[in-house]
Amino acid sequence: MAGFVERLRDAIARNNSCVCVGLDVDAARLPASVRRERDPLVAFNRAIIDATIDLVCAYKPNLAFYERLGIEGLVALQKTVEHVAGRVPVIGDAKRGDIGHASAAYARALFDVFGFDAATVSPYLGHDSVSPFLEYKEKGVFVLCKTSNAGSGDFQDLQVGGEPLYEVVARRVVEWNANGNCGLVVGATYPEHLRRVREIAPDLPFLIPGVGAQAGELEATVRYGMPLPVINSSRQIIFASSGEDFAQAARAATDKLRQSIIQIRPAGSQETVCR
Amino acid sequence: MAGFVERLRDAIARNNSCVCVGLDVDAARLPASVRRERDPLVAFNRAIIDATIDLVCAYKPNLAFYERLGIEGLVALQKTVEHVAGRVPVIGDAKRGDIGHASAAYARALFDVFGFDAATVSPYLGHDSVSPFLEYKEKGVFVLCKTSNAGSGDFQDLQVGGEPLYEVVARRVVEWNANGNCGLVVGATYPEHLRRVREIAPDLPFLIPGVGAQAGELEATVRYGMPLPVINSSRQIIFASSGEDFAQAARAATDKLRQSIIQIRPAGSQETVCR
């Protein structure tokens, strides 16, 4: 089996897309026809996937929205991953991080039980909390670096020996990349931070949430996300329409973002992966 | 309903115990008789709980070990929390942390769906990632501060403006405690760090994992954990025997730790909660 980064590159090239669709389900926002299905969450996700799979490089369910729904939600999550069936990578956005044997249990849950191709993890507990994930050589491990939320500066921006903590994290993750399966989570909401992280980690895939409506932000996101930007959009795609045309609307929203990224193409982008 | 800290104090006083039993299940280590039960994980946990509930102040299942077992594990986790039935607090050791609405979904999952009395959360994403948990005023929120693992120093010990990051985290959590429901996770493996965190946060409950065989460590743990130490032991209790006497062995191991803590009693401990 090819490694995660290779599978990601393949999907980016095949679909000419750096768009990752965030499958962040919300039972309260399902269209009426979907609610009548036997398994509404799965029906919704399957429809979104079927409508977009030739336009994306990855899907990213955030586990929070499934855990909120209890066992039923987690069964739906499993069925959702199964439905993608390896056609593009699926990133389990779990932000896990624990000490050794507990971290190994989380890695097993995410990679073996749920079958994700990659997962997001938190760096706070240090290298030995991330290494059980890294040992899955064919799986991707996106370490939280600079997150997209307003409060991300509370600790991530603190100065540590002349540079902010998120830069220290980025440097360490570059060192941890012996198996070539590391990535970083860097929010689109902080383009300048994104630029600095790209300088530190020139080759790592970046999972970039928080793309807004502003073209400026998207331009910086594409520029500094290169050569491996995985640009996530969740609610703007999956809830693009609340009506019966939700799947077509999701496809249109996905393609709009995809085209916007293609049009930004930084200089020399013919040589980059996301053409 | 009384707040979490009050319920915790009640359990400590009632059972004269600062012991928290970590229900970190391992399907490979169940005794033969338990394996023959219809629902082995639940049968094991119920037996441990029934054998120890008058000797503990809390239980702490780490979600990693249940997620590793997939849906079956998560159903067992729900049944385990139900079996405690509010007799002592149950802390969901989840170490979650995400941006706003995802963090709110995690809080809902842990507090409303699984019914935990408290949860562990990671600080890396900042205040707005923790606040959805804090808004549950009757629930406890233990923020990771200085964890017990060897790699905890990678980031937690980095100097930030003259003090290590974990101290900065402790100070911030003291500020976040408007609802009186904050606690800190501080490993018993770093007694000096524990002492410093106790200076910064004199009143907060500390969830203290990593108690080893060394009396010296336990002494510092009790001293600096006061006035609200929640001293966790997992495998040394629940796997104290691999035979059919596992529940009695767990009871004996729990009481041994409980008595050791009582005997350490720092000066003036009559006035402290853990007598």
CATH architecture of chain A: Alpha-Beta Barrel
Largest interface: A-B, 56 and 54 residues
CATH T-level fold name of chain A = TIM Barrel
| Name given to the CATH homologous superfamily of chain A | Aldolase class I
Overall pLDDT level of chain A: 94
* Count of DSSP H/I helices of chain A: 13
- In N-to-C order, the SSE pattern of chain A is HEHHEHHEHEHEHEEHEHEHEHH
What strand line-up does the widest sheet of chain A have?
Answer: 2-1-10-9-8-5-4-3
Layout of SSEs?
The structure is a homodimer of 275-residue chains.
Chain A: H1 4-15, E1 19-21, H2 32-35, H3 40-52, E2 58-59, H4 63-67, H5 70-84, E3 91-96, H6 100-113, E4 118-121, H7 127-134, E5 140-146, H8 153-156, E6 159-160, E7 163-164, H9 165-175, E8 182-186, H10 191-200, E9 206-208, H11 215-225, E10 229-233, H12 235-238, H13 246-264
Parallel strand pairs in A: 1-2, 1-10, 3-4, 4-5, 5-8, 8-9, 9-10
Antiparallel strand pairs in A: 6-7
Overall description:
The structure is a homodimer of 275-residue chains. Chain A has 13 helices and ten strands. With 275 residues, chain A is an alpha/beta fold. Chain A has one domain (4-271): Aldolase class I (TIM Barrel), CATH 3.20.20. Chain A has an eight-stranded parallel β-sheet with strand order 2-1-10-9-8-5-4-3. Chain A is globular and about 55 Å long. At the A-B interface, α4, α5, β3, α6 and α7 of A face α4, α5, α6, α7 and α8 of B.
